[in-house]
From TrEMBL:
SsuA/THI5-like domain location: 133-271
Metal-binding listed as a keyword: no
Gene3D superfamilies: Periplasmic binding protein-like II (3.40.190.10)
Protein name: ABC transporter substrate-binding protein
Extent of the signal sequence: 1-23
Record key words, sorted: Signal
Length: 469
């Protein structure tokens, strides 16, 4: 039955986007409209949306452009819950530049290509995760499920046609299941969270930040960390006709995005607090994704790995009926970024290193924090700074000294994805090094697998791990 629902959603989406396009690129009475679409609660788009907006950066660069062109720019911000309605507004000529996830971005490129006056190009990236772990699956705390195979025949809430939906299908396939083995329920993320927490569905498959928001609130636990080996990202698309007429607007936007990204790298905690205040999201959850060594790597360049991820996702979107084809060579336009970055662009594009890293000296274990695979962080209650630890074990020693903490951040010992330490499943491994005897895992299955492979190891909960240091 859910196969019919999938196809119906794809057809409905196509019908929605088949409206008559009406461009709004030109200036009216000397005033140039600048309509920016963003997703405030999708927090790995903040450098092209919420954070840029809160810092007033686009206004600053448009003022500079106005001094050179003599034009007056009328900037408006349009907030969307997801990518499809943003694309519909771009086709209607009501939005000129927008940010969205990789699957909606692909559909945007394919659907707008049908209309010359609103055809778009992919011009930058906001943030990415190379393993796909910005999309995750959570279950109620009462669930008996420990692996995806345990969801056979169960109801899973997801946003149909989203990257989270595609990630779920890939994860099911790796677990030996097909979409026909579960019942998919199409729901917007906030609705799905409510359904999960009220036991109306058996699992929630969603994109950042909703899975970890559920985990942080205590409303559920992680079942699958989203690691499918296929990168996921959010990017920026812009109307070709509009930016050809007003290239200074796109350059202002990209300059503003770069400054927002630099601010996030230099002031991660302050940036998280600003985004949280603007969106109503818990700052601890925002910082999990957007902080140093976070689940999101913020980098504007259009990397080959991300273009490859789009290619990988196209068959799923075609099967869904969301698009027929996408000419990636035509869709990707790196020239504005090259103009912004100059000679540094290719080097930045080639790097896959997260430019925001946890550094400092671990006072408890007496060693420097250097390895991103183990670097951890604690956010003390009432403090505007965090404390660093070289390893998760060292972090537990810090917490055991006393004090209250808003959140603990540790890398999953299996995937490296940043998770909440206080909500992790831990393994005690006496044979590990002195500062590595306690290892955190996002899922019970990964903890069990590690304990099985390492004789003498034991799966324990957070409080037991804390009591043991």
């Amino acid at each position: 039955m859910h196969i019919t629902r999938k196809i119906a959603v794809g057809l409905a989406f196509g019908a929605l986007l088949s409206t008559t396009a009406c461009a709004a690129a030109g200036a009216d009475d000397g005033v140039v409209p600048v309509a920016v679409g963003y997703q405030s609660k999708t927090i790995n788009t903040v450098t092209a949306g919420t954070l840029m907006k809160e810092l007033g950066l686009l206004e600053k660069y448009l003022d500079t452009a106005a001094e050179e062109t003599g034009e007056t720019y009328d900037l408006t911000w349009h907030d969307f819950a997801s990518g499809p309605p943003l694309t519909a507004e771009m086709i209607a000529g009501k939005v000129h530049i927008g940010s969205m996830g990789d699957f909606p971005l692909s559909v945007n490129g394919a659907k707008t290509a049908e209309f010359d006056d609103v055809k778009t190009s992919w011009v930058s990236v906001t943030g990415y995760n190379l393993t796909g772990s910005l999309n995750q699956i959570v279950v109620p705390n009462s669930s008996d499920a420990t692996t995806l195979a345990d969801l056979e025949g169960e109801v899973i809430s997801t946003s149909l046609g989203s990257t989270a939906h595609g990630n779920l299908v890939s994860a099911l396939d790796a677990a030996g299941l097909s979409p026909e083995d579960v019942e998919l329920l199409g729901q917007d993320p906030p609705v799905g969270v409510t359904a999960l927490e009220s036991d109306q569905v058996d699992a929630l498959a969603q994109f950042v930040p909703f899975p970890q928001r559920v985990v942080f609130s205590g409303g559920g636990r992680l079942l699958h960390d989203g690691n499918t080996g296929v990168p996921t990202f959010h990017g920026v698309v812009a109307s070709d006709a509009y930016t050809e007429e007003h290239p200074e607007v796109l350059q202002a936007f990209l300059a503003a995005q770069r400054e927002a990204m630099e601010f996030l790298h230099q002031h991660p905690l302050e940036a998280a607090m600003m985004v949280a205040e603007a969106t109503g999201l818990p700052p601890e959850v925002v910082y999990l994704y957007n902080g140093p060594n976070g689940a999101v790597t913020f980098d504007m360049t259009v990397k080959e790995e991300l273009v490859g991820a789009v290619e990988t996702g196209l068959p799923f979107l075609q099967e869904l009926g969301a698009l027929e084809q996408l000419d990636l060579d035509d869709f990707v336009n790196e020239e504005p970024l090259r103009e912004l970055y100059g000679a540094a662009y290719d080097e930045t594009k080639a790097s896959l290193t997260n430019p925001s890293a946890i550094t400092g000296h671990d006072e408890v274990c007496g060693i420097d924090v250097a390895d991103p695979a183990t670097a951890s962080e604690a956010w003390p209650a009432g403090e505007e700074t965090t404390q660093v630890a070289a390893t998760p074990t060292c972090l537990l020693r810090l917490v055991a000294q006393g004090g209250e903490y808003r959140a603990l951040y540790v890398p999953d010992a299996s995937s490296g994805t940043r998770i909440f330490g206080e909500h992790a499943t831990w393994v005690s491994d006496p044979s590990a090094g002195e500062n590595a005897t306690l290892l955190p895992f996002g899922t019970v299955a990964d903890a069990d697998a590690y304990a099985t492979e390492h004789a003498g190891s034991q799966v324990i909960d957070y409080q037991t791990a804390l009591d043991s240091v």
